[in-house]
Amino acid sequence: MFFDKRIIKLDVDARDSTEIITKMAKALKERDVIKDSYLEHVLKRETDFPTGLELEEGFGVAIPHTDSAYVNTSQIALATLKNPVLFKSMVNKSVNVKVNIVFMIAMSKPHEQAQLLSNLMTFCQNKTAIKELMSASEIDQADQILKKYGLN
Questions:
Q1: Which of 19, 22, 85, 118 is most exposed, with the fewest beta carbons within 10 Å of its own?
Q2: Among 12-16, 56-60, 81-85, 147-151, which stretch is predicted with the lowest mean pLDDT?
Q3: Which H or E run contains 32?
């Protein structure tokens, strides 16, 4: 699908949502996936339309993204976090969500995003899949988990 093993990061240390988003945007920029203005627009969108989603059993995910105008090539960056960071909830932005997994979406074609978000939401509702991804210690292992559950 849209995952590249070179943009999968495991057990990342970040102090807050801005730091992890910035680190992930840097990884996307290094592969020339995004335009220079992408990070600025993701951070702005995250303020206006937060993407934190609380899952069962103490897990949380965030799916930061922005318009396709700031993307060169469709790609998804993935990061599992060493310690959860707070994102605002997509359901209620006055609520903080402790996020363990971040899927940063960079879609170059607007129509790709809706189906992708649907697939990610299905994945995130699967407790087993989330636990497996959180326990992955090798990038190849994370990649296989994504494939197993139809995300890659």
A1: 118
A2: 56-60
A3: none
- The pairing of strands 60-62 and 75-88 is unpaired
CA distance 99 to 53: 8
CB count in 10 Å sphere of residue 133: 25
Q: How far apart are CA 23 and CA 88, in angstroms?
A: 18
* Cβ atoms 47, 56 nearer than 8 A: no
Q: Which of 131, 125, 128, 133 is nearest to 76 (CA)?
A: 133
Backbone dihedral region of 32: left (phi > 0), alpha (psi from -120 to 50 degrees) or beta?
A: left
Amino acid in position 121:
M
Residue 10 token pair: 């495991």
Pair 104, 76: CB distance under 8 Å:
yes
Q: Is the dihedral of CA 5, 41, 67, 90 positive or negative?
A: positive
Q: Quick one: tokens of 23?
A: 């680190």
The pLDDT, as a whole number, for residue 1 is 59
| DSSP-based three-state secondary structure for 141 | helix
